[in-house]
Amino acid sequence: MSYHQEASLLSFTYNCGPNWFGSNVFATLSRCLQQGELEQVPAALLLFVNSGGTSEVGRRRRSKAEAALWCSSPRTAKPQSPGGGGSPSAQGATGRRQPNPLVGMPRFQQRDSAQIAQRDRICFSTSCAMLLEALKRGTLPGANGYDHYLAVVQRYGDTTDANAQLQALAYYGVTARLVQTADFELIEEQIAREIPVACVFIHRSPIDGPTGSGHLLLVIGQPPPIWW
After folding, report:
1. What are 144-180's pLDDT values in tens digits?
2. Domain range summary for the chain, segments of one domain joined by +
3. How far is residue 60's CA from residue 148's CA, in Å, rounded to a whole number?
4. Residue 55 CB contacts under 8 Å (≥ 6 apart), including other chains
């Protein structure tokens, strides 16, 4: 199931509630999903155009949008390792790529930093240190090897400064860039290439004006679909 198909069902579930699957009212859509008849899902989605007996313009518009989203074609990436076939960590016994090729990469915890005064404000550095270690294993040895990376960041500026982080990564030979228009598809493409993504989550300002404090995490994979 593609990201767009998952997003379509997520929208449908948000509108209809989490208990729709398997109920008599949604028997057609449930059957399509249970039996793997995914090509029939758009038509099944279009059956739900009312919320109380009469067809509603808004509900029809939403169903059409969900059906169109289901049918849309996500961007695809064709990751290749230097050897051309993908790394062993990204392959299963059947040779198919696994959802989380970066599972098993080193983990760093910011609260373990030797710089006690920095422990509450180095999520950016910790995430970038894990990114570095995922791309160049063994660069930061030790359980809190990220303190070596932190020291390099501080040569270029404050740990919350994106430019300081980019320069620190460049010091280790990693070219990175700051993107403020990323979406789930871009993140999935990077994960498919076995490149983790450092993402900042702003929580004290509106989405249309992201200025404020937040938290930065490193995204290393995605779970398999869990709709049924």
Report:
1. 788 999 999 999 999 999 999 999 999 999 999 998 8
2. 3-71, 96-219
3. 57
4. 49
